[in-house]
Amino acid sequence: MGATRAWCTLIGALLLQLCTVGCVSSFGIFQDFYSTKWLIHSSASDISWIGSMQLFLDLGLGIIGGKLYDAGYCRSTLLVGSLLFSFCSFMLSLAKENQYYQVFLSQGLGMGLGIALIYIPTCTLVAQHFKSRKAFAMGLLVSSSPLGGLMLTIMQNRLIHSNVGFQWGVRASAFLATGCLAVGNLLITIPPKSPPQPGHQADKGARLRDWPFSLTLIGGFVAQLGTFFPVFYVQLFARDHGISSDLAFYSLAILNVAGAVGRIIPNYLADILGAINMLIVCFLCSGLVGFAMLACDHVVGLVLFCIFYGFFFNGVISLYLPAAITLAPREGDLGTTLGIAIVPVGVASLIGNPVIGAILGPKLIWWKGVTFASVSLIASAFFQAAAQIIHVRRSRKVPAPSTIS
After folding, report:
1. Which intervals of the chain form a coiled coil (predicted)?
2. What's the whole-model pTM score?
3. Which fold has domain 2-191+204-397?
């Protein structure tokens, strides 16, 4: 019975993230559409603030979702987040052309707040249901984001660029999201609250004073400054380099297909080789592959880039929380710990893409944006390697501190 509940919860959480977090992975189509048709009076940097606000609220406010989970309000938090996301999705369909504030309030602020109340609680649910193969289970869960991005990318590209138009295309997505959210909330089971750990309340700041955990947070912040650059800009990049509109529309879909695989295989290997080791590899490979975007001015190069970058960058995303769990110094409030770990990533999400948009400038000088994003990822590998070295050395000197199970 426990296994059945665990797998049903995983499926339910996957559905919740599929339509919410998945919309962040599909923002590249809106970046392209808003820049060329719907919000033509706004700069690329201004438009990227919409997607960046979604990311910031999703991740930066994760600590609120985590605290609500630990306080025993998981189900009500998920219900409120679901209702808010669904409502704001329909409100986006009412936004008028060249009315930037309407799009920002509904898509950036409203939908972002809904995602914030769903992401960390669903991750925590799955982490608590699966005591073994935790990284693999969480990899399956977060694979919902690129899968949702794939589904929404194809759906929206075909609808908003056709006679259906922007407003009914968005409404179609809103109806789909509402159905997924309803079924997902019905499938999840909330596990009993864990008893408080001795001395737990007396040392709430222990995580941030722990060097391996803090270095992981710094690495996550630096990486996120550049991680989503191709996701937001690859479709616009392809069109700007003369690649056919049909293939440009599918570039983000290809990236998301590879991303779904990249969120499962590295996490499967993480249960064998260690989440931290696999995260370092994905950091390095993402940064190195990122430079290849400069050579994607033809069809083959674009497809290969989307496949390899989609795989490794999604590996980074799916391994970050398992690595943070591994390095967390105390047991107990798993939701709060995950929320703390995701805050610096959220802050970087808010500023990263607008900064890159400003670096690109109105003339879209692509090599500057590519270099900034790729160097950010490579630098994060060194922060994570330092965290691993300290963690291993400390483990050899004293008995390993208990980690969150």
Report:
1. none
2. 0.74
3. Growth Hormone; Chain: A; (1.20.1250)
